[in-house]
Amino acid sequence: MRYPLTSLYYLSVILISAVPLPWWFYSVGGIVSVSDSPFQVLVYFMGDRLLLSDVITFLLTGFRIYVIFVAIGYLLETMRGNPKIYSTMFWFPVLYVLDPVIIYVVFLFLPKLLGFPANYPLLIWGEETFTSSYMGNQIRAEVMSYPTIMYWAALASAVLYIPSRLEMRKNRKVMK
Amino acid sequence: MDSVKLAASLLAVAFLIAAAVELNLRESLGESVQQILSLRQSLKNPSLKTVSETASNITFSLQNPYNLTIYVYSVTGPYVSLERPSVIPPLQNGTFTLKITNFSAFESLAKSREENITLLIGLAQFNFTVEVNL
After folding, report:
1. Judgement on whether residues B31 and B72 belong to the same structural domain of the protein
2. Minimal Cα–Cα distance from A109 to chain B, Å?
3. Which parts of A29-135 are beta strand (E)?
4. What does the alpha-carbon distance between residue B124 and residue B131 come to, in Å, rounded to a whole number?
5. Each residue of B117-133: pLDDT tens digit?
6. What CATH number should be reported for the domain holding residue B80?
7. Lowest mean pLDDT among A31-45, A87-101, A133-147
8. The organism sits in which domain of life (chain B) (predicted)?
9. Which of B1, B128, B131, B133 to mutate to probe the A interface, most A CBs <10 Å?
10. Chain B interface, mutation test: which of A66, A87, A130, A144, most B Cβ atoms within 10 Å?
11. Pair B120, B77 in one domain
12. Which of residues 139-168 of A touch B (CB under 8 A)?
């Protein structure tokens, strides 16, 4: 096999995108909790599963199928000695730290929709105590934001993309 | 777009169309909108009731409409204190008892509608204070 690293990269992409586990976990005082990945979303609000998150997960499953089949196709092409570049699963884990930022924006508007104004802290990673006062009453909540083991696996797969590109470049020079 | 990406897109679209028809996507969209609307309703339903009242204590009943544990950590106010912190399991009723230290002073305040107590309540890990006029 002329492209072992590229083949390994596409194999890891298939595995990462096929496993239905979340990449990031986010919780506001236990009343809102979000666990998501680029292919799925699960939201609990006041202890109840939000059905809207199932609808979004359904649409993201279409994207999951696309990624899996592209990776399978490119793995086969690579093993035939005709490697192709697919960088989506490199950028996703790298840019996933933006996920808490998106969630922050969503939760800036969700409480307003439900009729109680609140401000949430912008938190990328870790735990923070959020305090606020609303109509003279004190509010105190623990806000949590953590990547899961699955996220680290996805990031490890993304790291493989770099040697895979180097390998492709090196082999092309040899061919010339 | 190469043939691999084209084939993958077609497969994904075929899945989405087949599953949307099979799982009735319109119905589940309707259900999810309905759920958000009903959540908005349930947020406006605090149900605190007085169960019993004696010279030395008052017992309140609190109905927990959420799938989360409610904690009553402390109560502060003139002439009253919380007997012990109370835990109300998800979707159940629970009670908590206030001890009255000076009944006549408490009663005169309550009659003139000046008996304000502050409850420290936890909804899972979300803690907030509520002021209640007895």
Report:
1. no
2. 14
3. 32-37, 40-45, 48-49, 126-134
4. 19
5. 888 888 888 888 888 88
6. 2.60.40
7. A133-147
8. Archaea
9. B128
10. A66
11. yes
12. 139-142
Average confidence score pLDDT of chain A: 85
B41 at interface of A, judged by CB pairs closer than 8 A: no
Out of A8-12, A107-111, B103-107, pick the least confident: A107-111
Nearest CA in chain B to A115: B40
Domain holding B36, by residue range, is 3-42
Considering only CB atoms, which chain B residues are within 8 Å of A68?
A: 8
Which residues of B fall within a CB distance of 8 Å from A61?
15-16, 19
**Under 8 Å between Cβ of A52 and B32:** yes
**Minimal CA–CA distance to A30: which of A154, A138, A108, A141?**
A141
Nearest to A168 by CA among A87, A85, A90: A85
Q: Does B15 touch chain A (CB under 8 A)?
A: yes
Token code pair at residue A150: 């699955």
Whether B36 and B72 map to the same domain: the answer is no
Residue B70 and residue B96 in one domain: yes
User: Are A58 and B23 a contacting pair at CB < 8 A?
Assistant: yes
For chain B, what is the domain count? 2
Place of tokens 């990673």: A125
